[in-house]
Write a structure and sequence with these properties.
The complex is a heterodimer of chains A (472) and B (115). Chain A is an alpha/beta fold and 472 residues long. Helices cover 60% and strands 7% of the residues of chain A. Chain A is built from 18 helices and six strands. Chain B has one domain (2-93). Chain B has four helices and no strands. The chains are: A alpha/beta (472), B mainly alpha (115).
Chain lengths: 472, 115
């Protein structure tokens, strides 16, 4: 073996390559902290990945090249077109899917390791422990992410599906069973049936945890599962004694945890409460009672009236929400903005941190429609400006404008930071119907005397306003 | 003895990497959270290496070969797809000097589009 190994297969040389690889990951992630350096940062991280892969391929003495090429070709054939063609609105489910396959790879690797070593016989106990940890977490992540994908893609109903009050007990039992199977194997059992039992329990757990979670909380869950997959990759790294895997996996684990926390804070939800699930269902009941109190005080308007109102304003703030993205209205909105700017109206966009379906999602969608970066105002910058805004145009946004978050302590969203649209002189809300949003809560803003509702599909409504503007 | 020291070294690396992850990500603005999530998502596709390492070991039976090919394919989807999609998103944040003529995305809004 010593004779066969050339300089390129020297372990020290490979280790250096791995160190270079993870240094590039860290540098790349640092680049992601600003819009100007982000593209480069992502590419630096990709180069790091390429180096890590090359190092691993060099280390293969006997190498099963046919299988490697087959696997990579299959992966590329699926991954490249998916990444190229996915619509920006579908980004959350795409991330969920990519995350899921990562988790899938983790548990499959762990399984093959188990089989290869005849149930971890002759390996150190800690290797078995980390590998089993990876198997459980990877499997939970795989199934959980697939459910999240299914819900966002609307293959599975977005509303919470659960066993009711027994849910927590079911989850706990599944977790205990999976861990018990792991302990049994680590303690010396070589039975593959037990390993498969571990995978099945983890799979059921992944399903049972994510199914009860409502659509609105899904991005937080995806981020959490992203952190899980990272941790399981790090555990695989320890089991295989591979530094690049340890570092990359752990960085993702840590960053995913932070990101999950930031998102949960922005949505005013605690992570345990999200994982416990069932938010959407409970809120809808309260919303229904709220609707009764307010009935009949909504003022609706027409595209022509809205156009006049906008044309004679000095300052207009557009508040986009996921409804705008679903209707693919971002280009129409951009056209409307141009029309207004021609008339000397000052237009900006107020972006709530969780507008869209993920934090930062709305920025991506508007950037896609060529809205200049400096017209996008983050919530903290936008809120003080509403007082001197003539018209706020709310397009497909709901919960993020709901004053109940400030005024109604009993509301499920109480305490969530909102865009204070109600401070502006007048408000136009474009909405398909009076149906409540994701959180299932009635929005008091719509009953405010200075609010006018323009019912209709966001894209056609905005185009109509643009057309009316042309005739003024 | 040797095993134990490998474990402690690896645990040390693990802990340090965790801290680096916390520090680096705390600075990222809200605007970039979506690309960040998909970028870090691509990075954990590195588990692909695990598949590459094990598939080369001797003694893999047919079933093992099948699940390892699937694992490698999954890892590749995660890595390649993740980086590509992040790149696509981030490209949109770049300031555009001229109205773009070479629009790469073909979203179904040709009619009311740019002119």
């Amino acid at each position: 073996m010593i004779l066969a190994s050339s300089f390129l297969q020297e372990q020290n040389f490979l280790d250096v390559l791995y160190v270079i690889a993870f240094a590039l990951f860290i540098q790349g992630l640092r680049g992601l902290s600003g819009p100007t350096t982000a593209v480069r940062g992502n590419r630096i991280a990709a180069v790091g990945m390429l180096i890590a892969v090359i190092a691993t391929l060099l280390s293969q003495f006997e190498g099963n090249w046919g299988l490697i090429v087959l696997g990579v070709a299959l992966g590329a054939a699926v991954g490249v077109p998916a990444a190229r063609q996915v619509k920006m609105t579908a980004m959350p489910q795409m991330v969920a899917l990519f995350n899921g396959v990562g988790g899938g790879a983790v548990f499959l690797i762990s399984w093959s390791e188990f089989r290869l070593t005849d149930g971890f016989s002759g390996t150190a106990t800690y290797i078995a422990v980390f590998s089993l940890f990876a198997a459980i977490v990877g499997s939970v992540s795989f199934w959980g992410s697939n459910i999240a994908f299914g819900k966002l893609q609307e293959i599975i109903p977005g509303r919470p599906i659960s066993f009711g009050s027994a849910q927590q007990i079911v989850n706990l039992v599944l977790l205990i069973l999976a861990v018990a199977a792991g302990v049994d194997i680590a303690a010396g059992s070589h039975s593959e049936a037990i390993f498969i039992g571990l995978l099945v329990c983890s799979a059921l757990l992944g399903n049972a945890v994510v199914l009860p979670i409502g659509g609105a909380d899904m991005p937080v869950v995806i981020s959490l599962l992203n952190a899980f997959t990272g941790l399981s990759a790090a555990a695989t790294g320890i089991a295989l004694n591979n530094t690049a895997l340890i570092v990359a996996g752990m960085i993702v684990g840590a960053s995913g945890t932070i990101l999950t926390n930031l998102m949960a804070t922005a949505m005013n939800r605690s992570i345990p409460a999200i994982v416990a699930g069932g938010f959407g269902g409970g809120g809808a009941v309260e919303g229904a009672s709220g609707a009764g109190e307010h009935a009949g005080t909504v003022r609706s308007t027409s595209a022509a009236d809205a156009a006049i109102q906008l044309a004679y304003a000095n300052r207009v703030v557009i508040v986009p929400g996921y409804g705008m993205a679903v209707a693919q209205a971002q280009h129409a909105v951009r056209e409307l903005t141009k029309e207004l700017e021609k008339r000397g109206v000052e237009v900006s966009y107020a972006i709530h941190p969780v507008a869209g379906r993920m934090p930062g999602h709305m920025n991506v969608l508007l950037a896609e429609a060529d809205v200049p970066y400096d017209q996008l105002k983050e919530m903290d910058d936008a809120n003080p400006e509403f007082q001197r805004t003539d018209v706020s145009l709310v397009i497909g946004a709901n919960d993020v404008t709901n004053p109940a978050a400030k005024n109604t302590p009993s509301s499920p969203i109480y305490g969530m930071p909102i865009l204070e649209v109600g401070d502006s002189h007048s408000v136009i809300v474009i909405k398909r119907s009076m149906n409540p949003g994701f959180a299932g809560i009635e929005n008091e803003l719509y009953y405010d005397p200075k609010t006018a509702m323009l019912f209709g599909d966001a894209k056609s409504a905005v185009s109509e306003i643009s057309a009316e503007l042309g005739q003024i | 003895m040797i095993l134990a020291s490998t474990l402690t070294t690896n645990l040390a690396i693990l802990v340090l990497a965790g801290f680096i992850g916390f520090v680096v990500i705390s600075k990222v603005p809200n605007t970039l959270h979506t690309p960040l999530m998909s970028g870090t998502n691509a990075i954990h596709g590195i588990v692909l290496l695990g598949g590459l390492l094990i598939v080369g070991a001797s003694g893999n039976g047919t079933f093992n070969k099948i699940i390892l090919v699937i694992a490698i394919a999954f890892g590749t989807i995660n890595v390649v797809g993740g980086f590509l999609v992040t790149d696509r998103m981030l490209e949109m944040f770049k300031s555009k000097p001229k109205p773009p003529k070479d629009d790469t995305g073909k979203d179904g809004d040709g009619a009311g589009g740019t002119r």
